[in-house]
Structures are given as C-alpha cells and as structure tokens.
Amino acid sequence: MSYAKNREWEKIQEYLPIKNRMKVDMEPQEYFISIQNTEVHIDHYKVDRPRGRVIMFHGVGGNGRLLSFMAIPLMKCGFEVICPDLPLYGYTKYRGIVTYDMWVSCGVEIVNYFRREKRDTFLLGLSAGGMLAYQIAALCPEITGVMATCILDQRNRIITKQTAVNPVMAVVGNAILSMTHRVIGSWKIPMKMIANMKAITNNQDLADILMKDTRSSGTKVSLAFVYSMLNPLLETEPENFTKCPFLLVHPEDDRWTDVELSRLFFDRLACEKELQILEGAGHFPIESKGLEQMQRYCVAFMEKCLTE
C-alpha cells in the first residue's frame, strides 16, 4: 500500500489554503528505505538543482504525507524536501516493539542516508517532531540548521501534565509505566487516550478526520513507546547545544502546546536562535496567514544559513 493507491489523505487537502494543496504534478516520489528493522516510507519532493535539503519529521498525530502542506511551498522555493513516515505511522513497515529511542536512531540513519549526496541539510520538526529534530541534529554531523513548530521536553512534568489528555493521566500513567513498561511494553493503546489529540488542529471537523485515521492521529502505540517518549534520553542538553542555528516558528493560537512550554527548553539553547510567532495559527498550522509566515520565516532562515 502507498499514498498513491490509498487516497484517504486527500480528505485533508480541502482544509488547506488553495496554494498549499497538492496538485497531481506536485505529488512526491514514494519509495522505501531499509533502516534497522524497518522499511521506512519516504515522500520525496525533488527539484532540479536544489538550493538545499529539508528533512521533515512529523509528531505523534501525523505522518509524512500530512507534511505536504509545508513541503510543497518549500519545494516551490527550490528546496528538496524529504518526509518519512516514522515507525507506527503512515506506511512504514516495522518489526518488534517500537520505542521513541528507535525514532531517534531511525531519524539519524534517515539523515545519514540522504547526506551521502552532499548538500546543505536542514531538519524541520512539527509537534513532537520538533524535539526529535533537535535530538537528531545533536547526533548528526554537518546539520546546517534546525526548525521546529514547538520543542517540548517531556522530562519536565509541567509539560507532561499540560499536553496529556488530562493531568491525572500524565502523573498516574507515567508512574505505572515506570514499573510495568518492561513487562507489558508491547501492549498497544490509541494515542488519543494519552495525548490531547483533539487539540491537534483548531478545526474540529479536521481533528475528527485525523483521529479516525489509523495512519496518523488514530494510531495505536506501544506502552514502551509512551514510556520512552515521556522519559527521553538527551545526548546534549540545550546549554551545550552549539552545533547549528535553531528557528522556533510557534503557532500563536496553539491550544495544545502553548509557546511558554516550548520556551522552557528554547530559552536554554546555547546556539544562535530565533523565535517567530505564527499569527492566528493552531498546533497543526494550516491557517493561511500563519502558514504564509511559516514559509517566509523558514526560507529566510535557510537562506541565511546556507553554506554552498
């Protein structure tokens, strides 16, 4: 199966600004790459003589195809864009128990796979993909810059409480998982039972569609994944991160993760950094004005960082 054969993702397109919708001649090349115990599905938006490469990472409510809303404008601006489906999501095939640590190691190998062709490489993470992009950048050589719509350190229990489906679930759930994840880690539960998925977008009709989609917000994840996501292992603390510049493009009307939650980590970063607010945008920033700003800020950031 692939997005070319299963067109369910097209339901999302009508909620996007017209210029961000995918036309037939804009559809990415689809293929799989073998990494660890997975066959990672890739959406690859190719351009002639690209100015740079952007590898985009979705969060716990998305998949690679949902990132088309930003991949298309970046492609139009001359950047090669690569959107993988991370294990548990989209069409990526995997064996064994998936943990968040596996996301990090898989992400590092994805970046290294494409870096075989030398080119300025940027990472762009949305939602939980923001912290993931940071962790991958810390482990990969020669990353030109990192961009994110939010960056949440789930080791901070303030963040865990405010992003979970309810505060009690955050506290009690993590305590129970700390004692049981090694025994029943393979058990799967819907992500929407844990995280506040209904706030993934400010359009309730779209949120309902996403939460019914078993390849995005409606997927089931293992208890081992949940525990490792809530207790991530960071190789580099933000005070020691100087590898590359960092751009935070945070939605103004994010009803899931307020900008102040991201600032708890962002303000500690030792690298060159920049914060821009996307006016009127929700967590999944599909609103026209905020999306235009996101494109403009990301392109300007990359143009400033380009080395070739």
From TrEMBL:
Pfam families: Hydrolase_4. The keyword Nucleus does not apply. SUPFAM superfamilies: alpha/beta-Hydrolases. GO terms for molecular function: hydrolase activity. Residues 49-283 form the Serine aminopeptidase S33 domain. Keywords: Hydrolase. The keyword Hydrolase applies. This is Lysophospholipase, alpha-beta hydrolase superfamily.
